Give the backbone structure.
Amino acid sequence: GRGRKVHTVWLGGDSREDGVNLTRRPFDGWASADFPSIKTINLPIEVPSSWPPDAAAQVIHDGVTSLINGVRGLARFHVHLRERNWAPLPMGSRLRNALEQLFRSSMTIGRFTIDRADQQWGIALTGSRRS
């Protein structure tokens, strides 16, 4: 609860490769005052191929912003983006292009610097709070 501190939170299934489907709204509810302070969040996300790419990218951008603004004590986060069932996110796909437009290779949101790493399997976002 409120007075506790947690070092790292992994979301997903039984293993670190299991992702949270974007349709399950993984970014909602992080601003609860009853949550402990969380230093690091690791969030693998499956993006449904049926979603319009621009809409999916915007939901992810808004979600990252809500993590940054809502989680007490957050110093670092990792978001890994792939298609449904962990299929690779193809280079040049409309979804990858939309994500690359919203998340430049190095950018700032609030007090966080966010770096984007383009991987063969998808996109990795890493955010670090600036001092």
In short: The first strand starts at residue 5 and ends at 10.
